[in-house]
């Protein structure tokens, strides 16, 4: 047999075998790609669900908490009420002291 005949026979046997193996590998890769697509779709869905849950949580927290300017206004109001109350209490103690001093002075003058 000649070398060209042997190469032709080998070529006829090897080319279909290589084609078969490549086809089998393509099928396996196609399955892997489909699995990866499914997995990535699930991951994106999970991400979207997490984003929605986070937005909902942020909204709930915002509803339950005052903003800084609201707290500042409330504390200023409380501070003013406390200051005014203490000033009024001080005036009443001053008036009571004056009355007691006048009373003691009158009692001393009677004696």
Low-confidence runs of at least 5 consecutive residues: none
Shape: rod-shaped
Helical amount among residues, as a percent range? over 70%
Q: Structural class per helix/strand content? A: mainly alpha
Total strand segments: 0
Q: For the record, give the distance between the C-alpha atoms at the N and C termini, rounded to a whole number.
A: 157 Å
Rounded average pLDDT: 89
* Quaternary organisation: single chain
Order of helices and strands: HH
Q: In angstroms, what is the radius of gyration? A: 47 Å
Provide the β-strand percentage band: under 5%
Supply database-style keywords.
mainly alpha, rod-shaped
Task: Describe the protein's architecture and organization.
This protein has 111 residues and is mainly α. Helix content is 95%, strand content 0%. The chain has helices spanning 3-64, 68-110. The longest helix has 62 residues, at 3-64. The radius of gyration is 47 Å and the shape is rod-shaped.
List strands and helices in order, with pairings.
Elements: H1 3-64, H2 68-110
Concise structural overview:
The protein has 111 residues and is an all-alpha fold.
């Amino acid at each position: 047999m000649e070398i060209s005949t042997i190469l032709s026979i080998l070529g006829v046997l090897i080319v279909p075998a290589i084609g078969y193996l490549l086809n089998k590998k393509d099928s396996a890769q196609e399955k892997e790609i489909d699995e990866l697509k499914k997995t990535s779709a699930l991951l994106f869905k999970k991400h979207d669900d997490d984003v929605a849950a986070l937005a909902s949580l942020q909204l709930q927290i915002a509803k339950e908490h005052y903003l800084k300017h609201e707290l500042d206004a409330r504390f200023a109001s409380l501070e003013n009420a406390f200051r005014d109350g203490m000033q009024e209490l001080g005036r009443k103690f001053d008036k009571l002291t004056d009355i007691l001093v006048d009373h003691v002075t009158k009692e001393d003058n009677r004696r």
